[in-house]
Amino acid sequence: MTAMTRPLLNRRLAAFGTTIFAEMSALAARTGSINLGQGFPDTDGPEEIREAAVRALRDGRGNQYPPGPGVPELRTAIADHQRARYGLEYDPDTEVLVTAGATEAIAAALLALVGPGDEVVALEPYYDSYAACVAMAGGTRVPVTLRPHEGRYVLDLDELRAAVTPRTRLLLLNTPHNPTGTVLTRAELTAVAELAVERDLLVVTDEVYEHLLFDGAEHVPIATLPGMRERTVTIGSAGKTYSFTGWKVGWTTASPELTSAVRSAKQFLTYVSSGPFQYAVAEALRLPDAYYDGLRADLQAKRDLLSEGLAEAGFEVYRPFGTYFVTTDIRPLGADDGFAFCRSLPERAGVVAIPNAVFYDHREAGAPFVRFAFCKRTDVLEEAVSRLKRLG
C-alpha cells in the first residue's frame, strides 16, 4: 500500500490537537489530584429540574426527534427569560434557536456568518472553541487582548477600534468572561456597540455565565443597546446556570434573518439533540429569583475560599466578578511558564489547573497566568487549598 503524502487532518484544523482540558483531566486521574481545571460542577443542579427530565422521559416527550428549532415550550421559556430579565422581545417561533450546548451555538453562528477571508475580532484570552470555529469557517482571528489593571481585566477600546479593518465581519464577545472572570461594564459595551454600528459589524456574544455574577456586577446584554438587536446573535446555555453541563442545552436569540442563517448551519451539525432535557430546561428557566440568589451566594463564598487560599499559597489573584473561574499570576512563586507549572502542579501539590496561555494567540501574553475552577464542593476546595500550601 502506497503511503499517503497529504496530511489526513484538514489544514484548517492542523493547529488544534487534543485540548488542554483532556490532557489535564487525564493527568488528574493518573495522579489522583483534585481537578480544578475543567469547568464543571461536581454536584447536580436542582432536584426538581432533574425530576422534570425524568418525567419527560417517562411521558415520552422528546424521546424521538424534537422539532429542529427546539421544542416550543423551551423556545417560549427562553423568550420569556429575555423579556423578564432584560426587556428584550423575541418571537419564540422565528427568533429563538435551541442548540446542543453553547459550543454548537458558537460553531453554527460562526460557520453561518463568517466566510473565507473574513476577519473575526475576538477578546483574548478566549474559550478554545472560538479559534477552531473561526478556522473551520475559513475566517481569520484578530485577537484584542484583555489585560489586568487594578485587580481586574480590562478592554482597551483604542486597541479594539484599531483591530477593525475593512475585512472585519464580526465581533466575538464573551461576558461574563471566561477565563478572566471580568464582566464588561456598560460603558465598555456601549463603546463596542457604537463601533459595531459605525462599521456595520455583526456581533456574536457568548453570555452563558449571565447569572454567575459577584460583588454587585451588572450583566448588560449588548443586544439591549441602541442599534444592536438587529445585528447581534446572543448565546445562552443551561449548563452553567443550572449545573447540568452534560445535558448540552444551549440557544441563540437573534433577528429572524440572523436566526435563519444560524439554523442553516446548525441543521447540518446535530440537527436536533437533548429532547427530554429541553422540557426540563423550560421549567428551569422559570425558577424563582431565590434560586439565582442562592446560586450566586454559594459560588461567591467558594470564590472567596479559593481566592484567599491561592493568595496565601503565594499566587497573585485576580478575583473574578463573574463565571466560576479565578485567574492567578504565578510569577510571585518564581515561575513564568504556565504550561510547565500546571504539568508539575499535580506532583507538587496534588491539584490540577489550566495554563491560560492556551486561550491566547499571543502566547507570551498569557504565559504567567493559570486558571482554577471553584464550581466544586466546599470540602473539595478546602482540601485543594490545604494541598496548595505545599507550594510555600
List the helices and strands and how they pair.
Layout: H1 20-31, E1 34-35, H2 47-59, H3 72-86, E2 96-99, H4 101-113, E3 119-124, H5 128-137, E4 140-145, E5 147-149, E6 152-154, H6 157-163, E7 168-174, H7 186-199, E8 202-206, E9 232-237, H8 239-242, E10 250-253, H9 256-266, H10 275-284, H11 289-313, E11 316-318, E12 325-329, H12 338-349, E13 351-352, E14 354-355, H13 363-366, E15 369-373, H14 378-388
Parallel strand pairs: 1-13, 3-4, 3-7, 7-8, 8-9
Antiparallel strand pairs: 2-10, 5-6, 9-10, 11-12, 12-15, 14-15
Could you explain how this protein is built, in words?
The protein is globular, with a radius of gyration of 21 Å. It contains 14 helices and 15 strands. The model has no long low-confidence stretch (mean pLDDT 95). The protein has helices at residues 20-31, 47-59, 72-86, 101-113, 128-137, 157-163, 186-199, 239-242, 256-266, 275-284, 289-313, 338-349, 363-366, 378-388, and strands spanning 34-35, 96-99, 119-124, 140-145, 147-149, 152-154, 168-174, 202-206, 232-237, 250-253, 316-318, 325-329, 351-352, 354-355, 369-373. It has 392 residues and is α/β, with parallel strands linked by helices. 49% of the residues are buried.
